Predict the structure of Cadherin-like domain-containing protein.
Amino acid sequence: MDEKLILKRPDSQQAIAPMNRYEIADKPGRKRGRLVLSALFLGALGSVFGSKEGESEPAKHDPNPEPVGPGQPSDVLDMSGALGAIEDAAAYVQGLLQDLAFPDEALPSRLGRLRSSVRLAFDEGLPTTDLIDERPYKTSARPANDNGPQGFDFPGLASFGSSPSGRVEDDDADDDDGSPGGGDDDDDDEPGGPGGPGDGDDDDGSARSNRLPVVTGRNVLANGLMNLSAVILLNDLLANTVDPDDDRLSIANLTVSNGSIRAYGEGMWLYTPERGDLGEVTFTYSVSDGTGRTVNGALMTLMDWPANEIRGTEGDDVMRGTPQKDIIAALGGDDIVYGRESDDTILGGSGNDTLIGGDGNDTLYGEAGNDRLYGGRGNDILFGGMGDDHLYGEEGDDILLGEAGDDYLSGGAGNDRLFGEEGTDVIDGDAGNDLVDGGAGSDRLTGGSGDDTVLAGAGDDIIVAGLTADETRSASPPASDGDDHYSGGEGHDTIDASSAQETVVIDLVAGTATGAEIGSDTIESIEDVIGGSGDDRITGDENCNTLIGNDGNDVIAGNAGDDTLIGGNGDDVVSGGAGNDTIVVVAFDGSGEADDDGNDSYSGGDGIDTLDLSALVKAVLADMDAGIAEGDEIGEDRIEDFEIIVGGRGNDRISGSRGDDMLFGGNGDDRLRGRDGDDVLVGGAGDDELKGEDGNDTFVVVLLPGTDDGDDTIDGGDGVDRYDASAATQAVVIDLDRGVATGVEICNDRLSSVETAIGGKGNDIIVASNAVNFLAGGAGADIFVFRSLAALANGGEGRDEIRDFQVGDRIDLSKIAEAIGGLAFAPFADDGSPTPVNRITFYHETFSDSERTVVRAVIDLERDEDLEFLIAGRHALTEQDFILAAIETAAEQQRDAV
């Protein structure tokens, strides 16, 4: 029976492995056969060795001999008289071997034998016994690394039951004294082998020249395991080497491609792989027959360990893996799982889990729930799954996939790949040359330091350029965030360089973004830009861009498209270019208080452009004609080519140009002046004073949430001017005759030189004046009032018109009826008969593109005082559409109620 090597560890586990083993396992009855074979073979050889003459003095013990193979001469025997007996004994033994050990199959050849080595593993400096060297490997529990940074020292061979001499020992020779040949060595210098002295094979007695060992192929050793040491036997290395002279062979100059190897007793070497190594390892060595040498090699493949499977429960588990590869399924509940060392696979299952990969190249699946995943050291893969997850790649070249939900992804150090996929995600690539892909949703994406590629994907995304706050606070912050490529993809996307302290130059036409802190970046499909604190230069393209300079003396050009431009603090130069642009003036310091934003130059350019001062809290003076905008918060700015000005929350004074302008006062008691042109003036909240002056101006009531319009004073000036209360949701009374407009929402406005009125969504009353009026009631059951014949006559200048008469509306002529002694409705007559006096009748007029209804009041028989007004569209009027009674009319009752 082969000698056993037993390795102990504190937990009393043990592994038993043969010191020299060439077959997988003993077949039944083989051990008994070996005893018989040994006895027969020794008996056969007894006649030969018994004839040896004399006994030589034993050789001195060499404490560090070179391992030798079978066949190297240690003494010379005269075998001329016994060769036949040896051959007969060998034939008889071989036949017996077939009967006893291999009754059903042929004896395996030398090259076909399975070669194996003793495997040794150590945990914290002690031998582990988890692994029994079988083919294939079988493990009950996986051993820890035996080549870690602490290292270990193998115990002496004496503790394993082997001889400390380091020499090959012969199990079958009881009289072996430790020499390689198993007997006395009287003449070490004489060449051995069949051609040596005493060999009766040469008839003429002359010495034959030595033949070198022959290599039949590179040896393939049994597979090893990662981080597990192996003992390699002499016979493993000589398996594919034969000597034509049958000399003893030895090994020298043994080296290995990876790891380390050292002699470990007689005919054995200890190989320790590099930590974490996998794959093929090459051993190179020379084979000597005592006279000459040849070179051979051997291959060993280092395999990974099979994974341990660990299963949780449906509750809230706290689980910890082993130092080796694990597959951990946490299942339900809010679990905490730590994979530890090696390449682990962790599945969180349902619940809000915390998964920590630890060392190794781990794969983490958050699955359902709002999970937190930490990759740790190594090149990890993290899947967030459903829910709003937090994924941290940490060290290594990691892959992070947020999947469904609004996720946060942080790559950490290394060249990472991060994919937000669905949801509104926040992704930080951090250090390294990262790939950041936002996927669907409106995401916020940061490449971090390194040469990154950021793909925003679908949605309105924000791509952050420059160093992050954590990077700038580090002990050795990088000079820039690298030379990156940013692609906005679908949606309206923004590049945000607000963290930059020095100048950045961003040109959407050229597709470049450069600066000391952001590097030299290329950009595409980006619509909006946010500058930093330096003197930035920002250029838009043909799209509708939003360009923000922030602090510094910035130069911003919108170019084509309907752009929104914000200079920020500093003396900025902002030009809108082509398109209907909006230039916004914002003046706040770091604490949110209003501050002077500098002396800026604003140019609207072509198109209908807006100067927006709505963010200001103090009064401003803005005059388009004079080209100035001044105030405590905005300094002294120059303005040109604007058609719209929006005031702030102060008591502003805003004047238009000689063209068609729109002036909006905002909050506060504002004074608006339209000047020439057909202007639109909006007072906003507060008691405003609005003057249209020349042109056909419109005064619009705008109701802000939680406020009323205030008591405004409105003077239309020259032209046909309009009072528009269409924003009112409750009833209003607009009396152009008396010059008032009242209502819960519009308060009490004074009107002068206003010819047109538009009601709101309530049941409104609109009263015509003596001028030519255009009246529109809007939604609701409205009443149009004509108080006098003069209101219909209009001084001969033209006829009044009701623009939106509809079912439910009525026309109040009761005051005229009272003045002339009554009015009655006369249906439309198509027979040509004359209409009696004091009658109201109607007829239709048709044009190429429209129709209208003409209402006529017949006053006398001569028809020279007949009066008419118009209703847009074709209407079949009835008596119910008029109020003709000379009493307090419903119109007056409603007016009194208002």
